[in-house]
Amino acid sequence: MVRIRVLVVDDHRIFAESLAAALAAEPDVDVSAAGSGPAALRCLDRAAAEGRKFDVLLVDADLGGHGQPPALRSGHLPGGAAYGSGAPTGAGRGPVAAVSGPVPVQDTGEDSFVDGISLVAGVRTGQPTVRTVVLAEKDDPRRAALALQAGASGWVAKDCSLSRLLTVIRGVLRDETHLPPALLTGVLRELTAARKHRTESERLVESLTPREREVLRCMVAGLGRKAVAERLFLSPHTVRTHMQNVLGKLGVHSTLAAVALARRAGVGNATVYRNFPDRDALVREVVCSVMDRTALAAEVALEETGDAFEALSRFVHAAADERISALCPMIQSAFDKNHPDLEAARERLEDQTAAIMERAQRAGQLRDDVSVGDLMLAVSQLSRPPAGTQCVGVDRFVHRHLQLLLDGLRAPARSDLPGTSVTMEDLRRA
Prior knowledge:
Elements: E1 4-9, H1 13-24, E2 29-34, H2 37-49, E3 56-60, H3 116-126, E4 131-136, H4 141-150, E5 154-157, H5 162-172, H6 181-196, H7 198-206, H8 210-220, H9 225-232, H10 236-250, H11 255-264, H12 279-303, H13 308-321, H14 327-331, H15 340-362, H16 372-382, H17 395-409, H18 424-429
Parallel strand pairs: 1-2, 1-3, 3-4, 4-5
């Protein structure tokens, strides 16, 4: 059995240890935990030296801070508005100036401050075979886009199910990019804005010498002067001179501003676009991925023995966890709705959903006047926020209301439904 080596990085020890314990229960997962960015880097370096590299890094989006990282409190995605030029005022977990962009590791010892996004960038540069997934307490398109630009392969909510997290872990090892469908539109908007500001930044970076570009890449990776010197086999004094030259040629006054400009130029970036030729291909991949995972949930339910309606119920809740409600606006966007990949994913989902419903109907447990379209439309409507509201915490109500729906689907029916059952073809024509 091929085992997956996972490193959990979170400065909330109870969460890190609990997640590590849950993952360790999987037969094919080996897991370790680290409580800070520097500790994680040491774990990665030690594992690589011993020939047992980690495969996946799970990184807390708020690593090293409380709530939103200091680096992001007033900032924008690289390539958007200008970054602040102040330098950090402290190390470790002390206060840091309100600036934009990842905070580089300061040259104040091994416990220097490293935020989650900086850690992602550093790992992408230093150990590019390691896949990183960011764990976040809430969805934030700007920060998700920043993480993807830094090299993350996925963004996952901390309150997701263990099965969902395992799906993402295994998916990123297949070079998949995992992003909640509800975040896609916002992330694309942020990435598009970043591209508009890239040309001038690229011109400035191209004015650097090869050695200065190497130093700049190290700065983007979050390395301090001492670490850059060790990596490039230079003296700290020489590195300082190169850094001063980099700042002068880029026309900035701080390391943070230089890192921001470098990211706009694509230095060290591995954006969400890297595996897709255009936006339509990315949207199609996300839609197909969600459909495939939802169909897989139906297949798992079909393989279960026992109560047919309970299996249907588990599938409905799993479908809601996959955020299928977010597919509607994406499918309505301007891309080829008849693409073979999309048709295949749609057909698989419809067939598996129909099969699990038919089994419950044959058992006399599901009313016979509902169809696949009725079920999928109801799940989509119940798992999306009401119009005109932000409803950031609406997820905690979804499964309660889905259970109300499931109770109403049980046979025998207590009332007649108006109109006729909804088919998937009806939904496509709507």
